[in-house]
User: What shape does this take?
Amino acid sequence: FDAEPAVLAAEDVAVHFGGIKAVDGFGLNLPAGRICGILGPNGSGKSTFLAAVTRLVSLTRGRLLLDGAEYQNAPPETLARRGLSRTFQTVRLLPDLTVLENVRLGADLHARGRGVRSWFRPDTTPEVVDEAIERTGLGTARSWRPGELSYGMARRVEIARALAAKPRVLLLDEPTAGMNQRERGEISELLRTLRGDGLAQLLVEHDVQMMVDTCDHLVAMNFGALAAEGTPADVVVHPAVQEAYLGK
Ligand code: ADP
Ligand code: MG
Assistant: This one.
């Protein structure tokens, strides 16, 4: 995994909030068409690491690279243009917009990063939006508003919106939180389909079985640092993971 060329690389990343070392010397390499999972107990720094990679918090130290080019000082609004999209741990949809319009925001964000100032673009290519909606199985719900969606559907709108920015790297923070087993299986299948298209994905999840079923590579975080990494089969039986994460 580490021998493959990385589309996304993070080196020795630290994010300190005053005296709290949320992330403290963590890094990883993510090749194209691969899914890397991050496991770790609550408070181990997973979301803060994703926030660092997407430039929503400043790095205390470390380097971030996309296709080998450093971007740790780039503003977050330039990242969609560079091919980096994300979903958040909590659903963030605009309640007055339809599914289609919410997904279009992702495409518009991509266009905006290219220097277009208006938020909504009348000329956004509908194809990429349609494709994102179809890929995520939301075709029948395209004119619905978030209040009419099941929780699982709302979470898929978030993924569709991220896909509408045509990313090469997709970061997902607990995309199946609150979902039942069937819905989790559907998301796992969706992520594996996207991998087949060459999309690199960084996935944070608590469901160990889903991580084993979905990921090519796992890293375990604890106290903001790397606790274990390797194949999913190796990492889930690693003593650090058994002890720190599974409480065994
Ligand atoms: P995880 O996603 O693994 O549950 P987080 O990255 O959310 O962990 O949090 C890691 C640590 O950093 C926790 O101790 C958390 O309280 C702390 N933390 C996260 N964000 C902030 C912030 N904005 N200010 C201060 N402390 C924070
Ligand atoms: Mg988190």
Q: What stands out?
A: The chain is about 35% helix and 25% strand. The radius of gyration is 18 Å.
